[in-house]
Amino acid sequence: MGMASPQPDGSGHPPLPELELDNRAFWTGGGRGELLISRCAACRRWLHPPVPVCRYCLSTDVISTPAVGTGTVFSFTVNHQPWMPGMAVPFVVAVVELDDEPGLRLVTRLTGVEPADVRVGLPVRVVFEQHEDVWLPLFTPREAA
Ligand SMILES: [Zn+2]
């Protein structure tokens, strides 16, 4: 997944991903409120980051599929370094394991939570932050069921 070169535009958000054929659905699904994750239509395994060929069964029948959008914090780090001028710090970069399948994880940023309140296992749900034509999938705590 390529990242665009940082632009010193003072926009206060991290560099946006470059949209490519394989990752476009993931970065734009938020426009419809959907967390779109690649899923193999042959063996039904989820695949992230997006890839054109299933790593489990080598099928090319990989389809962007709406995930449930909930998960738990698998690991996290508190970042005190602003990626961009004007970006608020500290912020939490987390690996979230999605509820759709054990081991299906993505790297994201947490929002709506103080860094001191983040813990492994924290239940979270996706929220989208739009920048230009990209909807960044961020995660925020959800109430315990
Ligand atoms: Zn497969």
Automatic annotation (TrEMBL):
Signal peptide: none annotated. Residues 66-129 form the ChsH2 C-terminal OB-fold domain. Residues 27-62 form the ChsH2 rubredoxin-like zinc ribbon domain. This is DNA-binding protein. The lineage of its organism: Bacteria, Bacillati, Actinomycetota, Actinomycetes, Sporichthyales.
